[in-house]
Sequence to fold (173 residues):
Amino acid sequence: MSFFKVLPFLFGIACIDNIDKAGKRDVSTGSDSPTQGNWQFTGEASWSVDTCNMAEQMDFDSADPMVLSLTDSGFTIDEALDCTMSGSDFTCTGDDLNVSSDMSENGMDAILDMNQQISGRFDNSTSMLFVASLAYVCEGPDCDALNQMMEELVFPCESLWSINLEYVGETDD
Fold:
């Protein structure tokens, strides 16, 4: 399962143009794009803000490799993120990055909004810096009760982190 589809649920919120044979593409700036295939988190994440306690919740070491596939404007990651490149920099969009959860199904008068931004840059065709920001905001009279249920989170909160990824090989398909 995609790391990015799982991310909103890490805290229990679920209840609530030319490609060559090497897999490199010449982008508009003339630079090499990333190598298509499997990419893995490497090293430790660096947290500049973490009021959502993400560092305690996320386990990058056990994450499955992500599949990066080249597109005309950049690449996709696990078919969940559509990333656009500008030189060696990229920004990503995806349906699971901004989610609003109506907690009325759980008997609570609260709306929980999760907003993420994903960006980064490539050092070369096999190494990237991945940057993510995450913010949770709760609106409604039952947000205090929701805060007590969540234990790890106090709304509103935000986390900003970065980590390196490296190309680890071709996909098996």
About this structure: Residues 45-169 form one domain. The beta strands are 37-50, 66-70, 74-77, 81-86, 89-93, 98-102, 111-124, 127-139, 157-169. Residues 143-150 form the longest helix (8 residues). Residues 39 and 168 are 5 Å apart (CA to CA).
